[in-house]
């Protein structure tokens, strides 16, 4: 090792500083230590699927189920939460429904319950149909409910599938125009805690169907309120977006379906 340094120092044409650098490189190359890449450059593990949700202030079990496209009754069973599904901030909600116990059969059915007949039951694959082409006739879906349009306006965006970004339809309207309940029901969420929805209302119509009204300027009803079809529940706005519009969704057993298959044809 010393002989190598002396040889380098004997080269008079090289500055002393350069000689020292070369000597250092030789020392490193002769050492038995192997170079290792920094830990920061190592491949990161793949992201993991979210399996739990921590309840935030203002959330309801319905809004949590809505966020993750889950059926609220199944989510309640998985977490052993009895009706009326009361939860509290900080509570841990499991999103794993793989071990959800089967629902207990009910012997008696309420006379006023709007339960869809067996013929109305469709597979989940039907809910994931892509948006129809312009001018195409949309087949009506069987439903025990008599849906009506929640606002008067022009359709800006169609339903694009249960797993896609637009899980409902966007209806353009002027700020402040009335938003109506699409069917009789009970308000199960009223707030702005769901990202991307702005001021949002979720209405439960029966054990199978929910509807949502997003981007409102003002909410006129509160959680627990019973509303009738055609009752004004909000005002059109642009909360959570940059355009005045109503984003309207219908979900059956937790799965988004195309509202145009349920709403009556426009005259």
Structural description of this entry:
14% of the residues lie in helices and 22% in strands. 27% of the residues are buried. The strands form two sheets. Strands 3, 4, 5, 6, 7, 8, 9, 10, 11 and 12 form a ten-stranded antiparallel beta sheet that branches. The chain has a two-stranded antiparallel sheet with strand order 1-2. It starts with a helix and ends in a 10-residue tail after the last strand. α1 (2-9) packs antiparallel against α2. It is built from four helices and twelve strands, in the order ααβααβββββββββββ. The protein has three domains: 1-32, no CATH class; 48-102, Roll (Membrane-bound Lytic Murein Transglycosylase D, Chain A); 138-267, Glucose Permease (Domain IIA), CATH 2.70.70.10. The model is unreliable at 33-46 and 105-135 (pLDDT under 50). The radius of gyration is 30 Å and the shape is globular. The protein has helices at residues 2-9, 16-30, 61-67, 72-78; strands spanning 52-54, 92-94, 154-157, 169-172, 178-180, 185-191, 199-204, 209-219, 226-227, 232-236, 245-252, 255-257. It is α+β, with helices and mostly antiparallel strands.
Which fold name fills CATH's third level, the topology of the largest domain? Glucose Permease (Domain IIA)
Question: C-alpha Rg, in Å?
Answer: 30 Å
- Return the structural class: alpha+beta
Ranges where pLDDT stays below 50 over 5 or more residues in a row are 33-46, 105-135
- Global geometry: globular
* CATH architectural grouping of the largest domain: Distorted Sandwich
Tell me the distance between the termini: 95 Å
Number of E strands: 12
- Note the run of SSEs as H and E: HHEHHEEEEEEEEEEE
Major sheet? 10 strands, antiparallel
